[in-house]
Each structure stands twice: as C-alpha cells, then as structure tokens.
Design brief:
Elements lengths: L10 H15 L10 H4 L10 H14 L6
Length: about 70
C-alpha cells in the first residue's frame, strides 16, 4: 500500500508498473496486497484524479496478467 503511493504526479502509477514488471521477471509469482481497499478506493471521489489514475493503472496491469493453469 504505502510503498506504492507517492505524492508526485505519475510516481504511484510508475510504482505499480514497476511492481508488476518485477513480478513478471520472476514468474511464477504471487502479489499480495494488504488492505487493498485503502490502495484502490472507489473512483471519482478524489478531486485531483490521483485515485482514478492509480486504479486505472492497477486495472491495466491486472488485465495483462496471464494464467499459468
């Protein structure tokens, strides 16, 4: 959670991309998010759009995850 979020524009999204890139480089791998709801609250409630960008980046990365089974 807190390791991914950053106050600078674009940094949180880059942290998410980096996390998934690291996971892909050491497959098989499982990523666990503690207190996921704090990381990705409901979109549209953040006036600056930071939450929306973080959620969108996370959804983009999750969409690219492939099943090994």
């Amino acid at each position: 959670g807190p390791e991914l979020l950053n106050k600078y524009v674009g940094s949180s999204e880059q942290n998410i991309r980096d996390l998934f890139n690291r996971a892909r480089s050491v497959t098989p791998c499982i990523i666990l998010f503690d207190e996921f709801e704090a990381l990705v609250p409901r979109r549209g409630r953040d006036s600056a759009g930071v939450t929306d960008r973080v959620v969108n980046q996370l959804l983009t990365e999750l969409d690219g995850v492939e099943s090994l089974g």
